[in-house]
Amino acid sequence: MTTEPDTEAAPTLTVDELAARAGVTVRTVRFYSTRGLLPPPVIGPRRVGRYGPEHLSRLALIEELQHHGLTLAAIERYLEQLPPDMSEHDLAIHRALVASWIPEGAEETSREQLERRAGRALTESDLDRLAAMNVLERTAAPDTFRIDPGILHLGVRLLDVPIALETILAARTVMLEHSREAAKELTRLFQDEVWGPYSEKERNPEAVEAMKSLSAHMQPMVMQALVTAFQRSLKEELRARYPGSAAPSRAERGAVKGA
């Protein structure tokens, strides 16, 4: 276990608070920790373990992968392939991409439960911003919401970022448009290069099942490629527009310290 807090986002949650925010049991958190699926907590005063946003994001990603049908062994292999310095934001992107391949898994919750999961009281303005970020959806009942538990904690953190609601909506539109275009192009490539060569007579039930199986195995690779490409493009764009402003990653900082 590490004893040095991360200066970027010092962990502040106890194991009970982490479990409550993630919607799992304390036993589950500890089980995942023993399997190496969660990084160790930071040990604070009185030897109490403290957890942060990265743990929340990782728990959400694990849950999404389980919904996708992956076993714990497969999830371990998936997580081992991720960069060791991934932030909660990067993990949230992974989780969102994983979710895009499976049926909607929104949870219905009361306002009281929502605020308990969020760890704070939520104003009507807060709810509007969370809805704009696709974190939640209002229902006919005024105090009942459908939430996306995997990105709830990230959305709550963004409530304190001084970004206008109109900007959030514009960013959402850009992301949707470009992600749909990427999905169309990837589908076209699969159709033309993989499925296309099969003749009509070969498209029997066995061939269809084989194609479905191939698609399922390709999905994790496609998701990781999309995340990596997006992260690199975003960093390059930020560096081009704001020279010298891009902060080094934890891995890069570690390399400097070890030099």
Q: What does this entry show, briefly?
A:
The protein is built from 11 helices and 5 strands; from the N terminus they run H-H-E-E-H-H-H-E-H-H-E-E-H-H-H-H. It is mainly alpha-helical. A 3-stranded antiparallel beta sheet has the order 3-5-4.
How does the SSE layout of this entry go?
Elements: H1 15-22, H2 26-34, E1 42-43, E2 49-50, H3 53-67, H4 72-80, H5 88-99, E3 107-110, H6 111-118, H7 124-132, E4 136-138, E5 144-147, H8 149-158, H9 165-195, H10 205-241, H11 250-258
Antiparallel strand pairs: 1-2, 3-5, 4-5
Helix pairs in contact: 1-2, 3-5, 3-8, 5-10
Distance between the termini: 24 Å
How would the global form be characterised? globular
**Number of spatially distinct domains:** 3
* Assigned CATH architecture of the largest domain: Orthogonal Bundle
The neighbouring-strand order within the major sheet is: 3-5-4
Biggest sheet features: 3 strands, antiparallel
What is the alpha-carbon Rg in Å?
20 Å
How much is the average pLDDT? Answer: 75
How large is the count of helical segments? Answer: 11
Fill in the keyword field for this structure:
Multidrug-efflux Transporter Regulator, Chain: A, Domain 2, 259 residues, 5 strands, mainly alpha, single chain, three-stranded antiparallel β-sheet, two-stranded antiparallel sheet, disordered N terminus, 11 helices
Q: What does this 3D model show about the protein?
A:
A hairpin with a 5-residue loop joins strand 4 (136-138) and strand 5. The protein is mainly alpha-helical and 259 residues long. It is 61% helix and 6% strand. The chain has three domains: 1-103, Multidrug-efflux Transporter Regulator, Chain: A, Domain 2; 105-162; 165-246, no CATH class. The two termini are 24 Å apart.
